[in-house]
Amino acid sequence: MADEQKPEGGAAEPAKPPAETPKAAVPKPAAAPHAGGHAPPKPPAPMASTPWDGELPSQLKENFGDQITECATYLGQNFVVAKSDAVLPILEFLKLEANFDYLVDITAVDYPNRAERFELFYILYSFERNERVRVKAMIADGTQPPTAVNIHAGANWLEREVFDMFGIQFAGHPDMRRILLPEEWEGFPLRKEMSIVQQDDRWVRENLGIESGQ
């Protein structure tokens, strides 16, 4: 075998390996499409209300002072947070002085770990203004807020529904009984301790012939 030729004054340089061919980038798999072929919805933004300023909140603060703890807005929804004793006077003021003459709904939210367990919501609408406002108040379990029937006749059925679902009784109501569930139903379905699969097992078995939750 012929001797390798060496460059002058030194050892032979080792052969360089061939340059690697760059690998093509592997595309990431696309996210599975949401039902209906659309991208999955973004999670909702956390609740972030801002102060509600203007003529009406100024009038409310002027008339009710520290009975109102907050006037705020969230995504264009204006609301007033008030002490429970001030709710009826505020409803009356909004009806007579600001033309919020339609009581759209009364509902509640259960916060079982709070001292004032229930948050009551009164949703009002003004046809003249084409505007809604919400009045909110916290009450303890067992508290009986006064009925709003003398201000808004429609409160009769709305308060009965709140009683039916949450067990909140309204003092002075002319007919405080269930409106959706049978009179003999036990418990209040929208309280947090009520499991959806354990709603009055006895009534369901006796009247529907099935086990609750089927």
Please give a structural write-up.
By secondary structure, the chain is α+β, with helices and mostly antiparallel strands. It folds into two domains: 50-180, Beta Polymerase, domain 2; 181-214, no CATH class. The protein is 20% helix and 20% strand. Strands 1-2-3-6-5-4 form a six-stranded mixed β-sheet. A hairpin with a 7-residue loop joins strand 4 and strand 5.
How many helices? The count is: 4
What is the CATH homologous superfamily assignment of the largest domain?
NADH:ubiquinone oxidoreductase Nqo5 subunit
**Strand content bin:** 15-25%
CATH class of the largest domain: Alpha Beta
Q: Given the C-alpha coordinates, what overall shape results?
A: globular
CATH architecture of the largest domain: 2-Layer Sandwich
Total strands: 6
User: What count of domains describes the coordinates?
Assistant: 2
User: What is the radius of gyration computed over CA atoms, rounded to a whole number of angstroms?
Assistant: 33 Å
Termini separation comes to 90 Å
Helix content: 10-25%
Sheet having the most strands: 6 strands, mixed
Report the mean per-residue pLDDT as an integer.
Answer: 85
CATH fold name of the largest domain: Beta Polymerase, domain 2
Biggest β-sheet: strands ordered side by side in the sheet: 1-2-3-6-5-4
Helix-strand sequence: EHEEHEEEHH
**Uncertain segments of ≥5 residues (pLDDT<50)?**
none
Structural class designation: alpha+beta
